[in-house]
UniProtKB/TrEMBL annotation:
Record's keyword annotation contains Protein biosynthesis: no
Biased composition (Polar residues): 1-14
Known role: Catalyzes the reduction of sulfite to sulfide, a step in the biosynthesis of sulfur-containing amino acids and cofactors.
Nitrite/Sulfite reductase ferredoxin-like domain: residues covered: 99-161, 347-412
Keyword field contains Transcription: no
GO molecular function, a single term: 4 iron, 4 sulfur cluster binding
Pfam families (alphabetical): NIR_SIR, NIR_SIR_ferr
Protein name as it appears in the record: assimilatory sulfite reductase (ferredoxin)
EC annotation from Swiss-Prot or TrEMBL: 1.8.7.1
Amino acid sequence: MPPSSEQTGSAPTRTQRRRGDGQWALGYREPLNKNEENKKNDDGLNVRDRIINIYAKAGFDSIDPADLRGRFRWFGLYTQRAPGIDGGRTAVLSPEELDDRYFMMRVRIDGGRLTAAQLRAVAEISRDYARDTADITDRQNIQYHWIRVEDVPAIWEKLESVGLSTTEACGDTPRVVLGCPLAGVAEDEVIDASPQIQQVHDEHIGSPLYSNLPRKFKTSIAGCSVHCVNHEINDVAFVGVRGENGEAGYDLFVGGGLATNPMFAERLGAFVRPDQVSDVWAAVTAVFRDYGFRRLRTRARIKFLIKEWGPEKFREVMEEEYLGHRLPDGPGPQLDDGVRRDHVGVHRQRDGKYYVGFAPKVGRVTGSSLVRVAEIAEAHGSDRIRTTVDQKLVVLDIDGDDTDAITADLEAEGYEVRPSVFRRQTMACTGIEFCKLAIVETKDRGAALIDELEKRLPDFDEPVSINLNGCPNSCARIQVADIGLKGQLVMDEHGEQVEGYQIHLGGGMGLNPAFGKKVRGLKSTADDLPDYIERVLRRFRDQKEEGETFAV
Ligand code: SF4
């Protein structure tokens, strides 16, 4: 046997590295870490039966640890953080010490599409089983907290009775498929992607073919003219374009993602007809499954494969080894700079009716208030409610002479249809209240920050996004916000460690995508945050030149 690079002290050769990366397609099937071993021992999808037949009956203590901290995710279940553990201790405690006996549960809402009956079911589950918690996530899901394993079968039964599920809402799986909330109604959309989202969901979600991917896999499919579902940062994205002769189809992007190594997705340059989307999705996903790097979790997302191969090789392997035919070349999407992607406010649909987009604060709502949203929608003749990727909601199909009335009803529930710029564009991840990885608090602080900035800068109306994360992961997309706040412990003026944020400035997507810059040493304690942001925004307002916006 030749000496290893460790023995020789030399850099690993390409072959050694490939073997070490555990790529299935190269014949390396032996699990190289605990997660891979767990997935090999039993498919995550098999945990459903055990939850229904064993764990829900025998209770939390009966749960096999490999299921609890692994396979439960395949059905959108994570243990939540035990209350009262500060962020500074997160890194030194074992998973057992951080675990609560309650779960976070994520309901996948593909395309963000809900009927009033579905929203009511989601809301009633929150009220009846989740202590009235319901966060609208930045991937169009609804997330509960305080779920007991004993209640999971009843929750699933209720969700499934209205056509919803938690299948593959988390785990190393194809997560919820993002879609434009205005699909099918927007006046200026390139193509209505709803049928393709449904087809991908129906044909592939819950299939054992894709239930053991190297890591999570995020999809967006949309023909939205303002690209509201962020194709730049999804693992695979289909973006509505017009091909030859004006035929509507999709441009294909692969390899976007944030977290600790942010990368924007690469265009493959292929034109995908609507009837090919499901097959192409399957081919891209299978390339990831078979060639993705499985040794290190930190290198397992598809973006690292794209980085190593480049888009040309990826496209060639995908077409030749998986799809079985070449796709024609196609045009890139039309991108505008500086457009608001959030669909908040009252706007016309192409059928002459109106949609009404509104803003809960940092995505936090209650089941009881969501019941009211379903009632309000129905009272105003709508059966279509949508979640957005900005932690907002939209009601479709309102008559023109009814928009003021529904606006008043929503605002009476605390949902702003014409929110301040701060309420409109501030997002926060789950944070230390429930997330085991968190170092700092986010939701309450984000809500308080909105209140404070509205008070201090009542006339500020420049679009500016402020995103708060509780740790270095990027669940709230800090690197592509105008002001991104990464939670960490910082020193206060007395030399004490306190909760705070590292500040990223100038991130954005669209025509000139950029990751926010970390200015060395630019941090704020949580207490100083409103002062810091007020200073930045005042300075911008005082010094800005004609036509200049805060965004890059
Ligand atoms: Fe948890 Fe960190 Fe994600 Fe926030 S960014 S939800 S703290 S993992």
